[in-house]
Structure formats: C-alpha cells, structure tokens
Amino acid sequence: MLLKKSLVILCLSSTLLSTSCGAGAITPYNQTNNAAQEINNPAYQVNLSSYVDNSIKIFYPQLSSMSDTTKQEKINDLIKYEALKILDLYVAQENFSADINYDIKLCDSKSLSIVYSGVVHPNKTAYPLNAFYTTNLDLNAAEKIGLADFIDINNELVKQIKEAKYVAWDSGLNSAEELVKKDINTYDLVEILKNSDNINERNSANAFSYFTDKALGISLGVTHAIGDHAEFEIDYSDLKDLLRNSPK
C-alpha cells in the first residue's frame, strides 16, 4: 500500500497525442507503445498529456474540441489536479520515482471515468509499490463525483463487493482471489467506502471506484504480496436497489 509522503511538482510537459473518445478504453502509455486507440464520440477528443520530472512520469488525459470551452478548461484543470495529487503523498521524499499510466474505463457525453495505475518507489522502501487511483467526472456539471454521490453505501453494497467478480490486474495474480477476499474480510468496508475516491489521510485503505459501460468497479488496497491493490466489478443490474443516480 502507498506510503504517505510527498514531492514538489516541478514541471509539466506538453500534450503528446490526441484521439477521439467514446465508450471504450484508451491504450495507456507504456515504454513500448504510446499510441492511443481511436474511438468515436462527437462531443470531445482526448489528448494524452504528461508530467515528467527526472524519474517521475505521470500520464493523464485532457479534453479538447468541446463546444463549451469554459467548461472544458474547468474539466481539464480538475483532471490534471487529480492526476498529480498522488505526488502530495511524497513531498518530503528524495530520489522518489513514479511511473503512472492511465486507462479510460468510460467516456461518453455524460461521464468520464479514468483509472491511473503504475508503480511508485519511495526511497525508504526495498521495492516499488503498485499504485492505483481513479477520477470520475460528471461532464455536464464539470465536477468530480465519488461513490457516495450515486450509490447507497451500506451492508448490502459490502455484500455485493464480497461476492463480486475479482479482476486481476496482472496474470500472476489470477490465483490470488481467495487471499484477496480473505484480506478484505477484515475491513470495515462501510466506513472505508464512505471515505473512498480521494488521495488523503482519511482514505488510508486506498479505496477507489470507477465506471464501465456495464459495471461499477471497486478497488481496495491489499497487502503487497497479493498486489497492493485489488479490483472488483459489479454489474449495474445487481445494484439497482442501491443506485440513486446511474453513472452511465
């Protein structure tokens, strides 16, 4: 799980790539492929932008071609702020490194759901840590939204998570489901989920949510031996009694 340290932000690089955006995924940057998948949405385009400072690389999306440029600027400022907020955990670190990529899980005229994942390596740890965090946006309101904004967080939701499909983010973790669920069974998930979707002291369990076109995703911090974070997806149809506002 992430250590709570931080690093001063020094520079922001220019936009690297543009693509149209629809209800599909954009291939995140990696060392061998920085080409984004083209998907169609007439409302806006997605530009691949980056913050690079020596051993720190964070890639995040920016929107363009929106009809409302004031709203577009507000959304882009919010995306950038949330993408780089992880650095606030490491402000006192020297020789800190990070390589964070993004994947868009849902983008349509109403919602944008961005997943950030990669590795961070604080200088006081023997090995890199696997990072995972998200930003979900209501594009009409140009505001960030969290789990508590559209779903009732209660014991029924906890039950759904414990029965949900485990989504291993690496093939080496395919066999870790039993250990992951044993780990999260020790959590007070109602309290954890109420504090989800923010990078701060209150979200010590590193709980985050994301949207796909068919399911709600939940990420929870777990022990390093089983990946540092674990994701679960629940079909919206199984949450119909809990959803107040559909993210899709």
What percent of residues are in strands? 25-35%
Q: Considering DSSP H and I runs of 4 or more, what fraction of the residues is helical?
A: 10-25%
- Please outline the major beta sheet: 7 strands, mixed
Structural class: alpha+beta
Q: TL;DR?
A:
15% of the residues lie in helices and 31% in strands.
List key phrases describing it.
15% helix; alpha+beta; single chain; 4 helices; disordered N terminus; 248 residues; 4-stranded antiparallel beta sheet; 7-stranded mixed beta sheet
Write the layout of secondary structure elements.
Layout: E1 17-20, E2 45-53, E3 56-64, H1 69-84, E4 97-107, E5 111-121, E6 129-138, E7 143-144, H2 155-162, E8 165-167, H3 177-184, H4 189-194, E9 208-211, E10 215-221, E11 229-235
Parallel strand pairs: 3-4
Antiparallel strand pairs: 1-2, 2-3, 4-5, 5-6, 6-7, 8-11, 9-10, 10-11
Please provide a written account of the structure.
The chain is about 15% helix and about 30% strand. It is an alpha+beta fold. The strands form 2 sheets. The chain has a 7-stranded mixed beta sheet with strand order 1-2-3-4-5-6-7, with helices on one face. Strands 8-11-10-9 form a 4-stranded antiparallel beta sheet, with helices on one face. β10 and β11 form a beta hairpin. The two termini are about 30 Å apart.
